[in-house]
């Protein structure tokens, strides 16, 4: 190795890895190739290299159980969305970014249950069906649901909200149906107080995301779906900071001026503030 040069170093480093797993071997080799090619292409300086190491160090320092700066970095670079798109099975509901604010352990909510609580904002009824590629209902499918409050903050960002505010788990009924009432989530800014925020500002980019509802949908024997649903009238649909919008995930929020035309039975029927809005979407899962 004493005679390595910029032309031979990449192969020399790749050859030191003796991965038994062929997939791991490919991933490592291609990573080394891409990183080295980048350094050569931009003629990376020592100062720039140190700045990059410092950036990653700060990302690690600011990350904790409730915030992952590396996920956020992947999101704003479009990597998360690229991985989603290349792994979305044909015919199934398209996936979208998980985001950095999902937390485990949300309480169960019965089909038709209420998340509105004392949250301000427009009331919405969200409902639909979970099914497979053949259109068959998936009884017992599990949905994890979370969103921002009207102030654009998730519960784990806002000390004024309870731990699991606007978060739940729901098990689809015998016909694969799910339903719940909630408030319309607000557009919000991804965290910009850390190194990713510095990167956005350096690139002249804004940190805004359009309003959306997060879902993880799971059923035994099927691939887990991570996705988001967006209202068609949001100002940031074509300027999402993390590139999560897909045309198939953009929905009409249908206005209702009376509960007489309530599209599905919900627990909060008598407490819905009019006008309210309904959102219908059917999730399609691919086999595992």
Walk me through this protein's architecture.
The radius of gyration is 22 Å and the shape is globular. Helix content is 24%, strand content 20%. The mean pLDDT is 95. Helix 1 packs antiparallel against helix 2. It has helices at 9-16, 22-42, 46-62, 69-76, 79-86, 195-202, and strands at residues 113-114, 123-132, 142-146, 167-171, 177-183, 188-189, 208-209, 213-218, 225-231, 250-251, 254-256, 276-280, 283-285. With 288 residues, the chain is α/β, with parallel strands linked by helices. It starts with 8 loop residues before the first helix and ends with a strand.
User: Element order, helices and strands?
Assistant: HHHHHEEEEEEHEEEEEEE
Structural class: alpha/beta
What is the first-to-last residue Cα distance? 45 Å
Number of helices: 6
Biggest pleated-sheet summary? 6 strands, mixed
Principal-axes geometry comes out as globular
Proportion of strand residues = 15-25%
List the helices and strands and how they pair.
Elements: H1 9-16, H2 22-42, H3 46-62, H4 69-76, H5 79-86, E1 113-114, E2 123-132, E3 142-146, E4 167-171, E5 177-183, E6 188-189, H6 195-202, E7 208-209, E8 213-218, E9 225-231, E10 250-251, E11 254-256, E12 276-280, E13 283-285
Helix pairs in contact: 1-2
Quick overview of this protein structure:
This protein is 24% helix and 20% strand.
């Amino acid at each position: 190795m004493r005679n390595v040069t910029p032309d031979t170093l990449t192969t020399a480093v790749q050859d030191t890895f003796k991965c038994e797993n062929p997939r791991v071997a490919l991933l490592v080799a291609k990573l080394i190739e891409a990183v080295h090619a980048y350094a050569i292409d931009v003629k990376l300086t020592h100062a720039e290299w140190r700045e990059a190491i410092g950036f990653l160090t700060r990302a690690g320092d600011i990350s904790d159980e409730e915030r992952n700066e590396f996920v956020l970095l992947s999101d704003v670079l479009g990597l998360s969305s690229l991985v989603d798109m290349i792994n979305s099975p044909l015919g199934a509901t398209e996936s979208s970014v998980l985001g950095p604010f999902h937390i485990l352990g949300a309480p169960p909510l019965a089909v038709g249950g209420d998340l509105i609580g004392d949250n301000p904002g427009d009331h919405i009824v969200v409902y639909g069906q979970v099914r497979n590629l053949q259109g068959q209902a998936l009884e017992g499918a599990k949905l994890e649901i979370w969103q921002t409050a009207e102030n654009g903050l998730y519960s784990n960002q806002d000390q004024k909200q309870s731990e699991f505010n606007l978060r739940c788990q729901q098990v689809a009924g015998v016909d694969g149906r799910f339903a719940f009432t909630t408030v319309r989530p607000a557009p919000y800014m991804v965290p910009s107080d850390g190194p990713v925020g510095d990167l956005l500002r350096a690139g002249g980019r804004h940190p805004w995301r359009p309003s959306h509802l997060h879902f993880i949908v799971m059923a035994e024997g099927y691939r887990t779906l991570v996705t988001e649903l967006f209202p068609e009238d949001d100002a940031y649909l074509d300027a999402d900071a993390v590139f999560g919008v897909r045309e198939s995930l953009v929905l009409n929020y249908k206005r209702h001026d009376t509960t007489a035309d309530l599209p599905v039975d919900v627990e909060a029927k008598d407490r819905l503030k009019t006008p309210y809005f309904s959102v219908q979407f059917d999730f399609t899962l691919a086999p595992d």
